Structures are given as structure tokens and as C-alpha cells.
Give the backbone structure.
Amino acid sequence: MQLEEITQLGLDQIIQLAEQFQKSGRTADAIALYSHWNQHSTSDDRHIGWFNQGVMQLNDGDMDGAEHAYRASLDAYPGFAQARINLGLLLERKGQHDNAMLQWSQVAASGYLQGAANVDLQTLALNHIGRLQEQLKQYDLAENALTQSLQIKTRQDDAIQHWVHLRSKQCKWPVMQTLPNVSANAMLTGTSPLAMLALHDDPALQLMAAQSFVQRKFNLPTHRFCVNAPYKHERIRIGYLSGDLCTHAVGLLMADLLEAHDRSQFEIYAFDYSVEDGSDYRQRLKNAFDHVVDIRALDDYSAAVAIADAEIDVLLDLHGLSSGARPGILAMQPAPLQGTYLGFIGTTALPWVQFVVTDRFTLPEALTLYFSEKPLYVEGSFLPLHHTPTAACSQSRTELGLTEDAFVMACFNNVYKFNPTMFATWMNILKRVDDAVLWLLDDNTSATRELKKHIEHHGIAPERVVFAKRTSHAEYRARMQLADVYLDTTPYNSGSTARDVLDCGLPMVTLSGRTCVSRMAGSLLHATGLDELITYTHTDYENLVVDLAQDRARLASFRHQLIQGAASRAAAPAKLVRSLETQLVKLVETL
């Protein structure tokens, strides 16, 4: 066909020709077809042609060409909302965040114009703004965008889910504040499983949140890829599925455990989609596996095929329902036995996950009613204790804004784990202990601003709460040695942080409740022989901390016990792994 003939074709004909080119693998010809038609046709539909060209170029990896096409589409028709949304996504990929949000803002603002974008596109634009602002930790701006989105279109489970968690991250209490036309029930049922762990010490609500989330997000068709199982290998093959095998809270728990596996009986695989952070610790984790299969570039189907091809006997997923989870892989059942471990301290409600690795303190028999998974109990704590020598802190208390002779109570947990009842308990302790100061993490501008308001509301002098900037993992471990006691949160306890606290010899007071996530720090203390530091009510928690402030000899004895217990903690990962392996052998024998 001659080039001049192409310009005489209508958009529908151009689309059909381009699709034929693509099906035959001639993507470059399809792009060239659109390019010629877009530049020379007089059709009123050229904005769609430019848009289609941009989509093709982006899929082909030509970001600059795609940006040019999207902008040409908008030059032809400035009100073409989908092109503006796509342009924003492209600019986001280029790191031009403000420009991306400017494009989406124009779509959202079109609601005030006669030629407005439809409601779905307006809310999509606002949701993109909220998502990106959340990634940039501009939580107040993210919340504002989602509030506008929900005012335009109230029935949006994903928007509600993020809106609730954004308020938790900002310590805006009550978190579940009503919105026009968004019922309290819709807000509760739309709350994410992760947010629910921190909001309610109720195992039934956590089960409901997980079931609702799975039905809404992961109602996927099930396949059984492990058609040749059970396998009869000389060694049992254990696969770990994770995107957190790096300096992440979960990854930091794993090295000692992985290194302790008995290689005479087990062959250890990583199905890894973690970020390459270039750290020595990341390399240590990779070295701890017999095989590392990089699945970052694979879709769920291809990743499941890779696991099935490796003939994995037991697949341990380290995400559950946490950020970065890929349940679509598990849905295809690439391994005959699939379990969840560490990444999400609650039920996943995923029908393809048969068991959860836990311990009897964290998940007592009475709580198994609220888990879709069967418990696989290990000895001691399911969180691997360890001992890594902690370097001395290079800074003094004064240099970090603390008074040298103060009774320093630290809590460096993520601030979304804070809640009004826990915070009020801390404020009561400050009122009862004259020389006490509270040392918290300066996590984000919005949260710190809100916490300072809460401090003022409780009548506490602002200098008695010190906010610490985030730092490296090694430095934060060193800094914790300057504190006198660590104050845990509930109902979402510290996990990886609790292990670091104990490892550096700092006594920790926790409050164990009715849910697994509220009992994991207690599990560590119980395994360490420090049950005296586990409380079960806020009143007992408050009184224990006050008693420790007034009885420094007792506090020192706990610190001494932690220091003396270093050798026992160093041996704990091997003990945990032996019990885990014993349980896994029993499972494999049932196949």
C-alpha cells in the first residue's frame, strides 16, 4: 500500500492493519503505520491514533517516542483524559513526579468543566495522585486526593483501604473517621488486612479482613502445576518465595535460619524477586541458598512454572498478605505443600496455603479457629533469635537530643502501629516518672505533627518526647543501647525490631493480646526466659514500666540476663530450624 493511500484510510482500518502487523511480529511496521497516518491524515480521530501509537511505543520500550505521541494526542484533543493519565504514568516512570501529578490533576479538575472526563477517569486520576504521594511519604496530600476521589465515587474498596492505612501512618485518630456516603461498615470491610493487624486486637476481624481482601483481589482460577508430585528426591527440596531477601525486616530475620539448614537432608531454593540493594547482607542471603532463581522479570504463571520445574516439595511464602505479595503464584499450586511464614502475622485466608509456621505462644490452640491454615509448631519462638555483636554508639545522649541522666524509654516501631490507648499509656508513664523521656521515630512529617498535637493534648511538655531521624540498621541498633527500656506497641507488636532490641541487651516491655501479631514479641521474651516483661493489660503494662523506672536494680538484672543469654540466642536459629525440618519431613511423608 502506498503511503498516500494510508492517509485516506479511516481510524478503524488503521487499527485493523496495525493489529495484523503486531500479530505477525511486525511491531515496528505497526508503529510506522500509525506515525504516517497521524502526521498526514486530516481525520478528527487523530488523537486516538496518536494515543495508540504511544501505547505501542511504550510497550516496545521507547519512552521518549511514547511521550511525544501522548503529547501529540493531547495537542489534537486537550480533553482526552486517558492520554493525560497515560502521560502521567509515563512521566512517573521517568521520575518526573510533579509533572505526572500535574497531568492527573487536570483530569481530576475537569469535573468542574462542561467537557468533563467521566467519573471513573476522574477518580482514577485522583487515585494515582494518592498512590504516588503515598510512595513519596506525603501522606497528608495522599489522603486529600483519596478523600476527593471517595467524594466523587463512594464505592471504591481499594481507595478506602488506602485511605484508612494513610490515616494510621499519620497517627490521625480516630483512624476510621466517617466520610460523606461512606458507611462505617464499608470502611471496616474495606480495611486492608495489614491495617487491621494494627487497628483491632480481634482475631475474628482479622479473619474477616483477610477473607474480604482475598475475595476482592485474588479470586483467581486455581491450577495444580505440581502434577508429578510427590517427588522422590534424595533430599527434600524447600523453596522460599520472597521479594524481601535484602535489608528488609523479613530478610534481616532470615540469614541465620537459612544457614542452619541441614544440607544432607534438604536442598534449599530461593525464588527471588527482591531489590538488588548491593549490600553485603543481601549477598550473604543469596549465598545461604543452594539455588537462587531470579523471578523478578517473570509473570506469576512463568514463576509458577519455574517452581514446578524445580520439583519443589515445600514452598514457604514469606509475604502472606503483606506488601509485595504474589499470591497468583501460589494459586497455581506449583508445590504440593505450601505454607506461610514471617511476612504476615495473621491468617492469609488464601485457599492454596495449607499451613503456617508458628509457635504455641504466638498461636495458641484457642486462636487456630481464626486461621484458614493449620499451625506447624516449632520449638521456641517462630521468630529466629540470634546474637550479632552490637557496635558501641558513636554519639552521646546529648548529641541525640536526650538528657544524660533521664530515664529513656524508646520505641522505634513503625508509627502506624501506634494508637490512642497505647499512646495514652505512654503519656501516663511520663506523668508518673518525673525524669522519664520518650524516644520515638520521626517517621514522616504528618505523623510527627499529629503526635506533637497528642502530646500537647495530654499536657506533657514537648521536650519530654524526642524524635529520632531514620538511620542505617547498624546505627539504629547501636543507638538503642542508650535507652533504659524499650516500649513495645500493641496490638501490632514489634517483630524484627524486638529481636534487635533483645540482642543489644535492652529490656523490652510488651503487651500480649488475643491475636498472633499482638503476641509475637511476647513469644521472643518467653523463649528468652523473660516472661516477667510480658503484660496482658494496659494497666499492668503501665505499672510495670513505672516499677522498672523506680527499681533500677531490677531493670539492670534484666539487662544482665540478656547479655548473659547471648550464647543461647546464637544457638536458637539452629534449634528452630531442626524443629522446622522435623515438621516438614512429617508433612512430606503424608504426600
